[in-house]
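Hi R.,

Here's the chain you asked about this morning:
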Amino acid sequence: MSLVAQEIQFLDGYMIEGTKGLSLVNYHRNNTFHTTCSPEMKMLVNCDKQWVLAKAFQQDNPPIYLSIPRSDHPITNGMEKELNHVLNQWLKELIAEGHGHHWK
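And the predicted structure, written out as tokens:
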């Protein structure tokens, strides 16, 4: 299992000035030796203010893709809140697995 963080430049400043786009992916090798990503989170990060905002989630098995559009609609706000809860839980699990407390 390997964890990969990659900058996503097209998300830089998306909706919120001063943010950077980041993709965080956890790769697994399954029984047939195929590599799958499960999950991948795309997020906006503001290092100066020390916050993260989840914008998309995907996993391979079962296949799920969820992206938060630009909107102030209550449904979108609820989706964003749930996705950020998932991100929070996942980051806690990654730290518990020993992936580190300091991200660069």
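The mean pLDDT is 80.

Let me know if you need anything else.
M.
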